[in-house]
Design brief:
2 strands, Glutathione S-transferase Yfyf (Class Pi), Chain A, domain 2, mainly alpha, 4% strand, single chain, 66% helix, two-stranded antiparallel sheet
Length: 185
């Protein structure tokens, strides 16, 4: 039988804050990853344009115009780096929330069998959700910290993409006008 309302309400509040922050971070990361993909495509087009301009630079004598295009690309790379830095802060923020929940010994004791048992059939208790379990089992402590990750599981893929981008870092480039090349280094 559930004990909702008889436990430490601060645990319920901590979970609610974690859930709200998870939703915000998920939306933010999804949006940023989408924009990073679009900017990456735009970067590829710009690189190709640079290559074409370099190949015709001597003939068309458009060195100044070429340098402007290079500056545009530098600006795009800088923007990409800022997005990655901001995404990193979001991920650090999520981690700090998980650490805080651990310190408060927040329990979100969600078990698959218990969830199935409480599927709403007659004679069964309601599902042991994270909210009512935090009140019913406030003493479970740090042994349940991994259960908190279930609350953010649906944004794990997006976070993996973000972390991969952060690890990769921004692309570096070198323009060699004499050799008519643009190298990504």
């Amino acid at each position: 039988m559930n004990k909702t309302g008889h436990g430490d309400t601060s645990l319920v509040q901590a979970y609610d804050e974690l859930k709200a922050e998870k939703i915000h971070i998920q939306a933010t990361l999804s949006d940023r990853c989408h924009r990073l993909v679009l900017e990456s495509d735009e970067k590829d087009v710009l690189i190709e344009d640079l290559k074409n301009r370099i190949s015709h630079m001597r003939r068309d004598n458009q060195k100044n115009k070429l340098l402007c295009e290079v500056d545009d690309w530098k600006e795009l790379v800088t923007s990409l780096q800022l997005d990655r830095d901001s995404m990193s802060q979001d991920i650090v923020r999520l981690q700090s929330l998980l650490d805080e929940a651990k310190k408060q010994k927040t329990s979100v004791h969600i078990e698959a069998q218990q969830m199935a048992r409480g599927s709403g059939q007659a004679g069964h208790d309601p599902p042991l959700t994270a909210r009512n379990t935090a009140s019913a089992y406030p003493s479970h402590g740090t042994s349940c910290i991994m259960k908190i990750l279930l609350a953010v599981q649906d944004c794990a893929t997006t976070m993996f993409i973000g972390l991969t981008m952060l690890k990769a870092g921004p692309p570096k480039f070198k323009v060699d006008a004499e050799e008519d090349t643009v190298m990504i280094i």
